[in-house]
Design a protein that fits this description.
Layout: E1 9-14, H1 21-29, E2 34-38, H2 57-62, E3 65-66, H3 79-95, E4 99-104, H4 107-115, H5 125-138, H6 140-150, H7 152-156, H8 163-176, H9 180-191, H10 194-198, E5 200-205, H11 211-228, H12 230-240, H13 248-251, H14 255-262, H15 268-282
């Protein structure tokens, strides 16, 4: 096992949206020989640029970036795939004599990178369809309460309207008889510290001192996205005809609300209010 003194460094730069992670990463690149690995579940998708606050071509020209624009929006991208791709990126960057700087706000991705992944049961389409039908009839908060009775630890981490993760947690339980908490605890017994055994981790977090200031920054950033053509970006995705709200790319915060507006399901004022509320909940 490598000792702390000779483990190659890996930097984690974490934090909520709108806290300045991209600017901080680029500033670090002026002083350190880093390459940036995106830890963001939306930046992987091509065509999701403005609403994802994707680094510009000029910014990506300043320093190499990894795991951006690697999937079509019609494709899913799992946490397991991220872990595989991120570990490969880290190895390539280290082999080139440079420092991997993993920057983003997808905390699940940081978690699985550090701890590994529990072996979860495969998707059960019929069960998932029944749960989604119940959600349409009863609402996601009702299924969240059901999850709280089954797996209170997982439910406590999820917003009552976090449909995708509530659905997966219930699907895992009803198909395997085990809760996500139990599966993750068993995995942690074997995988905890695995990344630290290979690399010297430097973990940095950007946290807002004033929540109201962060909310104002979120509002200003969304207004800027609208000025930059966010609506036109989503309309282009909508016109493709092969994308739906069942896909992770279209369910991303901001995109889901703009998609509903483009589809005629909400007014512009409702879209803006819903997008800002969803972003604050994500933070």
């Amino acid at each position: 096992m490598a000792t702390p003194a000779n483990r190659p460094p890996v930097i984690f730069l974490m934090g909520p949206t709108a806290t300045g992670k991209t600017a901080t990463a680029l500033a670090l690149a002026e002083h350190l020989p880093v390459e940036i690995v995106s830890v963001d579940s939306t930046l992987v998708y091509r065509g999701l640029d403005i609403g994802a606050a994707k680094p510009s071509a000029a910014e990506r020209g300043q320093v190499p970036h990894w795991l951006i624009d690697i999937r079509d929006p019609a494709e899913a991208y799992s946490a397991a795939e991220f872990r595989r791709d991120a570990l490969q990126a880290i190895e390539h960057i280290q082999a080139a004599g440079r420092i991997p700087l993993l920057a983003g706000g997808s905390m699940l991705y940081f978690k699985v990178l550090r701890e590994g992944l529990a072996e979860l049961p495969p998707a059960a389409p019929a069960l998932r369809a029944r749960l989604e039908a119940r959600a349409r009839q009863e609402g996601w908060p009702a299924l969240h309460r059901e999850l709280a009775a089954i797996d209170p630890n997982t439910a406590a981490r999820l917003h009552p309207n976090h449909s995708q993760r509530i659905l997966r947690a219930l699907e895992v339980y009803y198909s395997s008889g085990e809760t996500l908490t139990a599966l993750h605890e068993r995995q942690a017994e074997h995988a905890s510290g695995a990344l630290e055994e290979r690399y010297a981790l430097v973990q940095l977090a950007l946290l807002p001192e004033d929540r109201s200031l962060l909310h104002r920054r979120i509002e200003a950033r969304f207004a800027q996205m609208l000025e930059q053509g966010f609506e036109a970006e989503v309309r282009a995705l909508y016109r493709r005809g092969d994308l739906t709200t069942s896909l992770p790319a279209i369910r991303a915060v901001g995109y889901r609300q703009m998609w509903d507006y483009v589809a005629g399901c909400s007014s512009r004022e409702e879209m803006i209010a819903q997008a800002l509320a969803a972003t604050r909940q994500l933070v």
